[in-house]
Amino acid sequence: MSFGPHLLLATLEGLVTSAVLALTALGLSLVFGVMRVVNVAHGEFFMLGAVLAWWIASLATGHPAVGFLLALVVSPLIVGAVALVAERLVLRRLDYNPEATIVATIGMLYIIQQLALTFYGPEARPVEAPFSYRILLPWFGYSGYKLSVIAFSAILLLATWFVLTRTKIGLVMRATQYDRETAQAFGIPVGRVYAGVFALGAMLAAIAAVLIVPIQQAHYLMGLDPLLLSFIVVIIGGLGSLRGTVVAAVLIGLSDGIISVFFSPTLAKIIATLIVAMVLVFRPQGLFGTAAR
Amino acid sequence: MAAMTPLLTTRDLRKSYGGLRAVDGVDFAIVPGEIRAVIGPNGAGKTTFVSLICGRVPPTSGQIVFDGNDITDLPAHDRVRRGIAYTFQITSVFSNLTAYDNVALPVQRTLTDGRSKGRLHAGVMSALERTGLADRADTVAGALSYGHQRLLEVAMGLALRPRLLILDEPTQGLSDGEIEGFMQLVREIARDATVLLIEHNMQVVMGLADRITVMNTGKILAEGTPEQIRANAEVQRAYLGTEA
Amino acid sequence: MSPGNSPKKVYLLHAAVIAVLFALNFMLPEYHHGVLARVMVLAVFAMGYNILFGYSGLLSLGHAMFFSAGLYGAGLTVSHLGWGMAAGFAAGIASGALLALVIGVLALRTTGVAFMIVTMMFAQVFYLLTLYFAEWTRGDEGFVLAQQARRIDLGDLHFNLTDPATRYMAALALFSVVLLATLAIVRSAHGRVLVAIRENEERTRMLGYDTFANKLAAVVVSGVICAAAGAAYALLFGYVGSTFATVQYSILPLLWVLLGGAATTLGPLVGTLFMFYVVDITSGYTSAYLLIVGVALILLVLYFPKGILGTVRERWIKWLP
């Protein structure tokens, strides 16, 4: 294969990564933007979504699309419910103190990870793609499913954007984000908004995970990379900015593939992590803004 | 004496937040030993102005000279070391520490060796005695009454042995009796320090200040002795007319 | 501290703790003897963390890098350069000091949540570096220090760190030095400034303190203590591996300090000991060790934020430092 097609292939693969990453990071960004807390367990919600997808798909019989679609609906709902319970039982009682919340979500990370290991096991398991159509390009065939992941993510991102900017729900969320006390004074049920946002954030991660399991297998340790990458995206993209999140996700998704072509994956991670840490150090105001106390 | 060099001067001092000019070209001077009050309606820029002087907020432009040195670019802690002390408008004592420890913090900083326990103890107790808090040395600051917390705030300022003590609305929330004692304390402080006072209570201002500076919309509107300010028609309109 | 404090009682208490630990050397059965030696070294790690988290109020999620800097600083120089024990220990501490200085200067430009994330990311870089330079570090697998290298010869005195009693005494010596150093720092003028920064940084600055310099000093002291723990761990237990650089080893000291009581001098020991035995006992029933860590973290922040000794101090023994 010559350079051109090679680049096209790398770009397509990068876009798939970007699409899934954008959804995951958006979840983290929403939670941070509205609630001003960092959810370290976000990657575990992603993992939980993938593991549940495998479980649900394995229960369904018949065409693989049935199991997959069932998983796409049910898995995010279960993850959202888990997040809701965690929010009510833990985060609310901590009054969303940023530091206590981080410690508590680290605790959740360990709990979810351990439960997944106990009940799901240490194996990596795939979910069958809903369809196996391959699009034949002049140079190579490409998975139609992967292209549909890009399209589906794009639609979901647009829908989120619409909800946030054009509906009353979005207005309530933005008001809460802007000023919690004033929002409360105007009769906005801040507690319920927080619970909803936390669940929504987890559900976005779970949807991303369901989309990725036909490509990448489900494993109990798969949450760490999405967590770190989401941090990177959220920090680079700027908080609460939907457009920034998407742009950064595309940037990271594409460059992730390209950097790993030139460097070893470990070195690529070292460089990426170091760059992001430096961004945080030298431009914290534009990135973590008012959250820094 | 009349041609005394000022302790502090600001030249064309400005601070903007976005489009808002909080402090808008202030030329100001204060001579050693005086008690100066800065008054003005809410939002006149008084707190921003003193925050620029003590270095909590960096100016947009202009110059601040303290004791003949340009301190415009000095960080806040260096200015405190040179003798500018600031007591906060909102009481911000260390509420989990005892009154003793609250005052020990500024005292231990002014001690050159920082180790001599005897001198530390003497310094702390003297500041507590001057503010009448000596018998509450071991009380946790958060458990003190509001009036006593304000006094503790002043004791911390005093313990820095400042040359310029900035008091930001010190009598806010104090009872009449407490205000009386407080005015006595400020007069005593002024014997060896210069005092810059932001105050809303006109009785306190008229009773304490040698000179008064009136601010409005970030600018100095008028300056003079209490009598001159009382007689100033412009001030009447902008400030006294609406509040008094 | 204020005149009401009881320095005599405080010194007696700390001396008593050290004396009990000394006596236990001769009383404990073999298994618990080994556990306690390990716990004392890890408690030093927790004490280093406590200086920054408990007293200065800076929550780092990256202290594994300081522990590992000591671990690798000592382990690599001893195994690859053939340095002696003392030189290796010094190398470990020096690595930690240098790293803490650089990380401190960078990370202290941020506060709060950003500080937590930045320290976590730097620690992640450190961890990845230990994997990247696997040629020397042997990565995840790690390497073992040769038995004959773990000896100290001082003239006619020979110490063999593979001998349990010697190892226990070496751990106790380090623990005692760091405990007394912590106590001295806490009761010093500098300690009072650190607490003031934790309580209200802006106010502390307006009392004329360069809060950045004070926080940097705290990061370096904390880093040095953690590196000393790491170096001691490498030399006493003879194993060096990148596991100790993972995020988990940044979380553990936080857990130990929270459990024992942040901003108490003895809390780190209590927390480390308690957690070690909780895991040890439950591992008889379940392998779900992380589950216990997770549940403990959540229960602590929810219901017990002051930890064991913090609660004891609040309710009963006010003079506890």
Structural features, described:
The complex is a heterotrimer of chains A (293), B (244) and C (321). With 293 residues, chain A is mainly α. Chain A contains twelve helices and two strands. In chain A, strands 1-2 form a two-stranded antiparallel ribbon. The longest helix of chain A has 33 residues, at 3-35. Chain A is globular. Residues 286-293 of chain A have low confidence and may be disordered. In chain B, helix 6 (176-189) links the parallel strand 7 and strand 8 (194-198). Chain B has 244 residues and is α/β, with parallel strands linked by helices. Chain B folds into two domains: 1-83 and 163-244, 3-Layer(aba) Sandwich (Rossmann fold); 91-161, no CATH class. Chain B has helices at residues 46-54, 76-82, 99-110, 117-130, 146-159, 176-189, 202-208, 226-231, 233-243; strands at 8-17, 20-30, 35-39, 61-66, 69-70, 84-87, 164-168, 194-198, 211-216, 219-224. A six-stranded mixed beta sheet of chain B has the order 6-7-8-3-9-10, with helices on both faces. A four-stranded antiparallel beta sheet of chain B has the order 2-1-4-5, covered by helices on one side. Helix content of chain B is 39%, strand content 25%. Chain B is built from nine helices and ten strands. The mean pLDDT of chain B is 86. Chain C has 321 residues and is mainly alpha-helical. Chain C has one domain (7-246). Chain C contains 14 helices and four strands. Chain C has helices at residues 7-27, 30-55, 64-80, 85-107, 112-132, 134-137, 164-187, 189-199, 201-205, 211-237, 248-260, 267-282, 289-303, 307-315; strands spanning 143-144, 151-154, 157-160, 239-240. Chain C is globular.
